[in-house]
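# nightly structure sweep
# worker-07 picked up a monomer target from the shared queue
# config: single-sequence mode, recycle default, output format = structure tokens
# input follows
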Amino acid sequence: MTHTPIVTLSFFRFSRPTTRLWALWMMGRARFALPKVAGIGFWKLCGSGTGEGFTPIPNTAVYAILATWPDEATARRETETAGIFQAYRARATETWTIILETSSARGVWSGGAPFSATGRALDGPLAALTRATVKPSVALKFWGRVPDISRMIGADRNVAFKIGIGEVPLLHQVTFSIWPDTRSMGAFARENGPHAAAIRAVRDGNWFAEELYARFAILGDTGTWGGTSPLNTLDIPA
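# output follows
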């Protein structure tokens, strides 16, 4: 597998019971179709939690596909035209795909490093992704911290978008957020509150069996989420 800096994250919202059942079934079935998509590298199918995803209770309405690509043109073309993406879009009531370029990444995901970072400085809007495999023995402690963090990030007017998704409920978790700049994101991470306390607990207790942290430049998006593009509030050149 060739590692590249281009990453897409596609979200799909399903409103009807029949389409939600289809999306749940595709968590298994799509694993056979995604490797056949032209140019796709690393990929993951994810479900979400209720609310904005930061709960252990599954949300059967929202699913996501994360993928890496050799270049931006391929990423845009395949997320629009590949059969598996079209199948999701045809049944979803709303879809949104964000196109990203990896600026920095550390850690591993499924035993490897899926994102190749450019190392370029981020002087404007950015996206942040964290991914962790939670040790089963501390899963309850971990989820006990999450609601306070969710409320804290929800109250932060700087965050343009946030969601919690995951590969396996309770144990394999991904958080994704979009910020106007590194200063506002860093201020949230450092603030002495639930987030900082959770970070200390994770480090002191060695809660994660595997973890990854990445930051991305935002190249653009297609579709809407909640009726609009989450990027509309950000100063991103066309």
